[in-house]
Write a structure and sequence with these properties.
About 50% of the residues lie in helices and about 10% in strands. It is mainly α and about 120 residues long. It is elongated.
């Protein structure tokens, strides 16, 4: 997935809209929006502000925290998203493979099954 550098949203709203190349058809672009719910957005901004207060020489304001959050969502968000998708696909593939063993039936097993002898 390649992210278009113009994808960074410069608003206080925590949202990112990276443009991704479709692996199946590179000419096709897929727009993906990574948005946080308002409550999670506010918690993230509060956490960034606290991190700067406790670990940096200068505190960071609310607007700067929101902009930094937007940057992280646009720059790093797609990587985290892709990793989560890959993990889910791997998990689903493992479950699909187990499905053959759980519900699959032996084909053409009439002659190999133990049958009572005819008298």
């Amino acid at each position: 997935m390649q992210v278009d550098e113009k994808a960074l949203v410069h608003s206080h709203q925590a949202a990112a809209t990276p443009v991704c190349k479709n692996a199946d058809n590179p000419a096709t672009q897929i727009t993906m929006s990574i948005e946080l719910p308002k409550h999670a957005q506010q918690q993230a901004i509060t956490s960034i502000e606290r991190y700067f207060r406790e670990n940096m020489d200068e505190p960071i304001g609310n607007m700067q925290s929101g902009a930094l959050l937007n940057f992280f969502l646009a720059e790093i968000g797609p990587t985290i998203y892709n990793k989560a998708i890959a993990d889910v696909q791997e998990n689903m593939q493992a479950r699909l493979q187990e499905l053959d063993y759980e519900v699959g039936k032996e084909e053409f097993g009439y002659w190999t099954a133990k049958r009572p002898a005819r008298r």
